[in-house]
Design goal:
Strand content: under 5%
CATH architecture: Orthogonal Bundle
Helix content: 55-70%
Radius of gyration: 18 Å
Mean pLDDT: 82
Structural class: mainly alpha
Low-confidence stretches: none
Distance between the termini: 20 Å
Number of strands: 0
């Protein structure tokens, strides 16, 4: 693949944040998008701590669940105005019920997850990344 100059792009929930926030912002004019993005990122961090999620659900399903939880959290904190709906089906009416079922499956464990990454987990991840970049320095160019 390297000889062909072929590159792979692995999609993640992070790739969809701007799109999802844009859809919500179209209907809610005075939305604090930076605050919403921060709340979505909090949820995505939890997803990556529950390792099996990234293998069981698609990035779009994970991103929708994180958006849903972020909107609920903002609503609970009084950060959303009256016009903003916490029900995601108002923003994405064309999605199938099976997608919403998956989003519900993701939300339940995330609501109850209260862990933070352990220092040894962070150290292990950093070591693995360092080893990877030693073997593949070409990926550092895109960072």
């Amino acid at each position: 693949m390297k000889a062909l100059k072929f590159q792979l792009h692995v999609y993640s929930p992070l790739d969809l944040i701007d799109f999802l926030v844009g859809v919500v912002r179209e209907q809610v004019q005075d939305l604090n998008t930076n605050l919403l993005k921060a709340k979505i990122l909090e949820q995505i961090i939890k997803v990556y701590q529950i390792e099996q999620f990234v293998f069981l659900y698609t990035p779009s399903q994970i991103a929708l669940a994180c958006l849903d939880l972020a909107l609920c959290k903002l609503s609970e904190e009084g950060q959303l105005n009256q016009a903003a709906s916490v029900d995601l089906t108002t923003y994405f009416p064309d999605l199938e019920i099976s997608v919403w079922d998956k989003v519900g499956d993701i939300k339940s464990p995330l609501k109850t997850f209260a862990g933070a990454p352990k220092p040894e987990q962070v150290t292990k991840i950093r070591q693995e990344l360092a080893r990877f970049h030693m073997k593949h320095p070409e990926f550092l160019k895109n960072i």
